[in-house]
Design a protein that fits this description.
283 residues; mainly beta; Beta-galactosidase, Chain A, domain 5; 9-stranded antiparallel β-sheet; 6-stranded antiparallel β-sheet; 1 helix; isomerase activity
Length: 283
């Protein structure tokens, strides 16, 4: 079942039963996300947008060491030998409330050391798309947690990307982060970032995608506004600008924690963030 929201020239289609993934996001009929084809699985396709929790991006070897035990999760990318993107995208969300332009959804899940409750708010208005996510430890013991949003933005030819950061993580042959190097972020055209798959730390929470027809601006606050994953596959007209709360595989590589550790949440404790997306047409 799909959930459609529309307001002020904005139109969004979501799949609550498939991880509350976005199947489409449009402004004045223009695709801002690569649209998910009818019947396609948002867990396997490169389209729309999905949620990452209770961890984000890569988990080295599918191993999550915590409290004297190592919890094993399925390897989702055998070529790398890693588990990616958390657990929530494979689980349904319940629609708690919906109006023509806004909705609130909730999810509860368990896996390994994780027991979580999450609440998601999605609203469209003349100001654009606003997302809010709250994640709570529903277990009876402290647990590290994290979250992120993974949009597959449509990327027409001739785009530029701009955002500020302090560090960038090189990666090894398994795409896992190595100690970071100083970086001002990105400010340039495709020659600077096409083919990139890297995490940036010290992000100021604002990223701009300048398209030939206008500028898409993403603003993140709260637990989202420090780290940004950038994925720009050279063979596809897509660009992922992913606000995330922690460095990939940081639970496996604690030396990287100063640039974005997972939050250790006590029972009943939570973390939260907001994202705004707007689009300004070129006049």
């Amino acid at each position: 079942m799909s959930l459609r929201l529309a307001a002020a020239g904005w139109d969004a289609m979501l799949r609550p039963g498939q991880g509350a993934a976005f199947a489409a996001l449009r402004w004045q009929g223009r695709d801002l996300l690569a649209p998910l084809p009818d019947g396609a699985d948002p867990n396997t396709g490169m389209a729309g947008a999905f949620w990452m929790l209770p961890w984000t991006n890569r988990l080295e070897g599918g191993a999550f060491p915590w409290a004297g035990a190592v919890h094993a999760f399925p390897i989702t990318h055998p070529a790398e030998g890693n588990a990616l993107h958390g657990l929530a995208r494979a689980l349904p969300w319940q629609v708690e409330a919906a109006t023509p332009g806004a909705a609130t959804l909730a999810q509860q899940g368990d896996g390994g050391p994780f027991h979580w409750r999450a609440r998601l708010g999605i609203a469209l208005s003349a100001a654009g798309l606003r997302l809010s996510l709250a994640l709570e430890n529903a277990g009876d013991a402290p647990c590290p947690m994290g979250f992120g949003w993974h949009p597959w933005f449509a990327r027409p030819e001739g785009c530029t990307v701009r955002f500020a950061a302090t560090h960038r993580f090189p990666t090894d042959d398994r795409k896992l982060p190595l100690p970071p190097e100083p970086s001002p972020g990105l400010s340039g055209g495709e020659a600077e970032w096409l083919g990139l798959d890297a995490q940036f730390a010290g992000w100021d929470g604002v990223a701009e995608l300048h398209r030939p027809d206008g500028c898409l601006t993403l603003r993140a606050r709260g637990d989202w506004a420090r780290n940004l994953q950038v994925y720009a596959p050279a063979h596809l007209p897509l660009l992922c600008l992913e606000p995330v709360s922690h460095v990939p595989a940081v639970i496996n590589r604690p030396d990287l924690a100063p640039w974005g550790a997972m939050r250790v949440l006590a029972p009943g404790e939570g973390m939260a963030g907001e994202i705004e997306v707007d689009f300004k047409e070129i006049q």
